[in-house]
Amino acid sequence: MFAICRAGSTVVIAFAAFALAPAAARADGIDPGLWKITTHTESGGTAGPPHVSSKCLTAEQTGDLGATFSPIPATVNSACAPIERSLKGPLLSWHLVCKGQLNMDLSGAFDFDGPHHYSGTVRTKAEMAGVPIVDSQNTIEGEWVSACPQ
After folding, report:
1. For the whole model, what pTM was predicted?
2. Residues near 98 by beta carbon (within 8 Å), at least 6 away in sequence
3. Looking at the domain 2-146, which fold is it?
4. CA distance linking residue 52 with residue 50, whole number of Å
5. Sequence spans of domains, the chain
């Protein structure tokens, strides 16, 4: 989940099954199971330390690559245009723009290059009253670890 709170307004962009988690099981997709997700964030020209997390996805959760890896807007004092999404083979890209008290521009690109690996980037820009408050890029790598524990 991504949230910005400032001057009484809140914009939350939630990613289905956590934006940076793995997705669809299909012939050319990725497998359900336990995934290690490593995220590198760069913001304002400064790179932060890698963040490592894990996520267990069932076959049911991996059924829709586009929905699992695209943001779900929930905004206050801003309105979001319909998300633009393209899924061509193993490549997913999306773009979401929200305007209002807080303007946001989010874009993502993922490459599901094998059943046990994917990589992607998520770019976030936000401004309030013309003043930039977020300009970051996350680089993500997902590696399949095992079947989900019972």
Report:
1. 0.79
2. 11, 13, 73, 75, 78, 79, 80, 81, 104
3. Lipocalin (2.40.128)
4. 6
5. 2-146
